[in-house]
TrEMBL record:
<keyword id="KW-0548">Nucleotidyltransferase</keyword>
<feature type="binding site">
    <location>
        <position position="178"/>
    </location>
    <ligand>
        <name>alpha-D-glucose 1-phosphate</name>
    </ligand>
</feature>
<keyword id="KW-0547">Nucleotide-binding</keyword>
<dbReference type="InterPro" id="IPR011004">
    <property type="entry name" value="Trimer_LpxA-like_sf"/>
</dbReference>
<dbReference type="InterPro" id="IPR029044">
    <property type="entry name" value="Nucleotide-diphossugar_trans"/>
</dbReference>
<comment type="subunit">
    <text>Homotetramer.</text>
</comment>
<comment type="pathway">
    <text>Glycan biosynthesis; glycogen biosynthesis.</text>
</comment>
<feature type="binding site">
    <location>
        <position position="211"/>
    </location>
    <ligand>
        <name>alpha-D-glucose 1-phosphate</name>
    </ligand>
</feature>
<feature type="binding site">
    <location>
        <begin position="193"/>
        <end position="194"/>
    </location>
    <ligand>
        <name>alpha-D-glucose 1-phosphate</name>
    </ligand>
</feature>
<keyword id="KW-0067">ATP-binding</keyword>
<keyword id="KW-0808">Transferase</keyword>
<keyword id="KW-0321">Glycogen metabolism</keyword>
<dbReference type="Pfam" id="PF24894">
    <property type="entry name" value="Hexapep_GlmU"/>
</dbReference>
<dbReference type="InterPro" id="IPR011831">
    <property type="entry name" value="ADP-Glc_PPase"/>
</dbReference>
<feature type="site" description="Could play a key role in the communication between the regulatory and the substrate sites">
    <location>
        <position position="112"/>
    </location>
</feature>
<feature type="domain" description="Glucose-1-phosphate adenylyltransferase/Bifunctional protein GlmU-like C-terminal hexapeptide">
    <location>
        <begin position="314"/>
        <end position="417"/>
    </location>
</feature>
<feature type="binding site">
    <location>
        <position position="113"/>
    </location>
    <ligand>
        <name>alpha-D-glucose 1-phosphate</name>
    </ligand>
</feature>
């Protein structure tokens, strides 16, 4: 409960005990391209050893919220397995739990979750059974550290039925988010979801006030809003498109500035860190930040740890190559189980169990778990998906046309490599070699 005054401490504790968090983790995550072909976006690996959803769940636990529901839908097996294996330490007999809520047609046995609001509505009977006074709705696909106790205290003190957490963002990023305008008292006066031309802050034409996808509702008010929304045949069943605009129109929604509850880097007054890692480029950039000398996101803060599920692996190991030559490393992250043989690695993040063979050069590489990189590869500005085996001598990041022929290349030149892409590349090259050697 960082930054809470003594007077508000008791109020915050009482609010926390009366709160249930719902983490919305069912989105398709299509902008991450092939990274979400087999997994939901919240289950995507991040930062060397974590999954994206670990940040929202860790924020809950660190804030003292031990009643959590995780709402899943698309390609949820990897996510469910991760939560079951890594987040089973809560004690149900102590009223602590992480409840998994996959889409199961609880309401009409016809429709799956049709939107974020419908996902909560279809589990409303479960939420009601737990009897919370407040419901904290969270997106499960953002990377940030936040003390929800401060948010809840702000909600209780204002006495309003809905509070929306907000953050200032550059205008060019706001089109992918919900954008709001507020009055001097913090009341939200206008809210538009993913606008083409986002409204900016007064006197600041380059900055918008955006929703973080984090809402606090008085529980009874939420139930009533969801029931009313179900009666609207034109609704998209979505918080950003329907529920929040309706509450704003009624003058009942207030904004909570992220600066009031963000968990900053230790011993510094750094800006608040929050990232929607929803594209290949933004995902790569957020991982690259962790390899910098002083990252904007502090993962080494023992007072606000990020919990996860991880294998019990030996420490990372660096050895000479097969000729006895040593490699080098600079500004890189290496996770447990990595073995690097005489290679040069710079500004990179290597996840658990990665094996880099002799004579490789990696620069600005994000390498997912259990990847094998064979001898003599040169890889720059890449994301390599889990369990890929990179063929010896592969060069990526030097010829844009060659990269785009076999792999996904983003607008900013980040190359995504997956197992299916490597398999397709091998087939094409084999066919081409067969044509060249055919006597006919």
């Amino acid at each position: 409960m960082a930054n809470i005054d003594t007077k508000g401490l008791g109020m915050a504790r009482e609010a926390i005990q009366q709160t249930m968090a719902l983490v919305l983790a069912g989105g398709r995550g299509s902008r991450l391209m092939q990274l979400t072909d087999t997994r939901a976006k919240p289950a995507v690996h991040f930062g060397g050893k974590f999954r994206i959803i670990d940040f929202a769940l860790s924020n809950c636990i660190n804030s003292g919220i031990y009643r959590v529901g995780v709402v899943t839908q698309y390609k949820s097996h990897s996510l469910l397995r991760h939560i079951q294996a890594g987040w089973s330490f809560l004690r149900y007999e102590m009223n602590e739990f992480i409840d998994l809520l996959p889409a199961q047609q609880r309401v009409d046995e016809v429709n799956w979750y049709r939107g974020t609001a419908d996902a909560v509505y279809q589990n409303m009977d479960i939420v009601r059974d737990y009897g919370p006074k407040y419901v904290l709705v969270l997106a499960g696909d953002h990377v940030y550290k936040m003390d929800y106790a401060n948010l809840l205290l702000d909600h209780v003190r204002r006495g309003n039925p809905v509070t929306v957490a907000c953050i200032e963002v550059p205008k060019e990023q706001a089109s992918a988010l919900g954008v709001m305008q507020v009055d001097e008292e913090g009341r939200i006066t206008d809210f538009v979801e993913k606008p083409v031309d986002p409204p900016t802050l007064p006197g600041r034409p380059d900055t918008c006030l955006a929703s973080m996808g984090i809402y606090v509702f008085d529980a009874r008010f939420l139930y009533a809003m969801l029931e009313a929304d179900q009666q609207d045949p034109h609704s998209c069943r979505d918080f950003g498109r329907d529920i929040i605009p309706a509450v704003v129109q009624a003058g009942q929604a207030y904004a909570h500035a992220f600066s009031q509850s963000c968990v900053r880097n230790r011993g510094s007054g750094d800006a608040c860190y929050w990232r929607d890692v929803g594209t290949v480029d933004s995902f790569w950039a957020a991982n690259m930040d962790l390899a910098s000398v002083i990252p904007e996101l502090d993962l080494y803060d023992e007072h606000w740890p990020i919990w996860t599920n991880q294998k019990q692996l030996p420490p990372a190991k660096f050895v000479q190559d097969y000729t006895g030559q040593s490699g080098s490393t600079k500004n890189s992250v290496f996770s447990g189980g990595c073995i690097v043989s005489g290679s040069h690695i710079q500004d990179s993040v290597l996840f658990t169990g990665v094996r880099v063979h002799s004579g490789c050069h990696l620069e600005q590489a994000v390498v997912f778990p259990d990847v094998v990189i064979n001898r003599g590869c040169r890889l720059k500005r890449v994301i390599i998906d889990k369990r890929c085996e990179i063929p010896a001598g592969l060069v990526v990041g030097e010829d844009p046309q060659a990269d785009a022929r076999f792999f996904h290349r983003s607008e900013q030149g980040v190359v995504l490599i997956t197992r299916s892409m490597l398999q397709a590349r091998a087939r094409i090259l084999a066919q081409e070699a067969e044509v060249q050697t055919d006597p006919a």
